[in-house]
Amino acid sequence: MDQRSTTPDIEKSAIRKVSLRLVPFVALMFFINFLDRTAISFAGPNGLTKDLGLTAAQFGFAAGIFFVGYILLEIPSNLALHKFGARRWMARIMVTWGVIALLFTWVSSVQGLYWLRFLLGVAEAGFFPGAILFLSLWVPSKHRSHVLGLFYLAQPLTTLIGAPLAALLIGADGLFGLEGWRIMFFGVAVPAIVVGVIAWFYLTDKPADAKWLTAAEREWLSNELAKEDRSKADGHGSHAGKALLDPRVWAYALIYFGLVYGLYALAFFLPTIIGGFEAQFGTKFNVFQKGLITAIPYLPAALALFFWSRHSTKHGVHNWHVGIPAFIGAVSIPCALFMQSPAATVAVVTVTACAIFAALPNFWALPSRFLTGAGAAAGIALINTFGNFGGFAAPFITGALKDATGGYQVPMFAVGGFMALSGVLVMSIRAARSSPVANPSPLSLKPQAHAK
């Protein structure tokens, strides 16, 4: 049989095997990662804030200081991953953050909480951009939005599954003589250590080393990825230093900042907002019911993420695949707190969650089309680092504005403003010509001639 006639079958089987073998496991790692970093949002309104005597601003600072440690070591960690390989480095990251996350079980002061959140950020530094880089090294660009979309499903599922799980753990109040929120911290930390050890033996650094692929599949993947790397090698995308100075990287960093600001304002304060329904609407919910309500927006968000990513995979990722959701989120999040019932509030918050999660996986398909090698490691890390300033700013500014104004309306307008900024920026990049990601020509901040 002619090689050209067999190539589509080899391509299909290779991508299917990567999607089944690697994506679910890396997504599980991401699930645990996001649950550990946002566990404080479940603990806050369920005993931690009261037991440690935290104001809204102090709670926001504790949530946000995680990102200071994360930011400091993000780029060095991702370059280390590029040097030592994903298998070793991501396993090391998981075990380290799991040990630190376990220590939250016994935190007893505001200062101790600040230090542990800071150290958790240091330990987790490099995991998320490392995961994005790792998956990008396994699939060619035309399949990347599909694979990243499957990977990103772990994030809304973290709250969909994690909120009721956290509520169940918190409901075990008194077990081993510990408050419920301490038991919750213990319960979400242990899996990180276990899965981190498994990752050392399970992950494979590159297609050429994958014994679970056939020789033809290994050859096809390696050749396709090498071909893409060669097409990017004549730009700045393969050099770490040049990538860090590339204006395209900084433009995407600003866009990501706004998206992450919205993501973490929602993640850290939605449980608190739901906890305030009793005072606002006179409704009463127990801890488990609050956990279920917190989870409601994330099932539609997971579906929106899946189908929006599927559309972008079929038609090619365009800037509007990020811009439209950003604008929808910008409008919906401030509106949520002007609703007149818990159901209406949660419904509008669900629209916001759908918008944020529809935008995120498609966003990461954009910079990977001009970044490669060490440039990809540095550029993706820089984008994620700057975005994570949004992770620090969102809870801190939200808490401070809430303390200053007495409500969450003004803080949510700030969230909407940052998401609108992301929408404007992403739609302005190559506004004169919207080109799908499958096009191998480098992304530019100005109109570009069609590739020949």
From TrEMBL:
Keywords: Membrane, Transmembrane, Transmembrane helix, Transport
Transmembrane segments: 20-40, 52-73, 89-108, 114-138, 150-171, 183-203, 249-275, 287-308, 320-339, 345-364, 376-398, 410-429
Boundaries of every Major facilitator superfamily (MFS) profile domain copy: 22-435
Main subcellular location: membrane
Topology class, membrane: Multi-pass membrane protein
Top-level taxon in the UniProt lineage: Bacteria
Family matches, as InterPro entries: MFS, MFS_dom, MFS_trans_sf
Subcellular location: Membrane
Protein name: MFS transporter
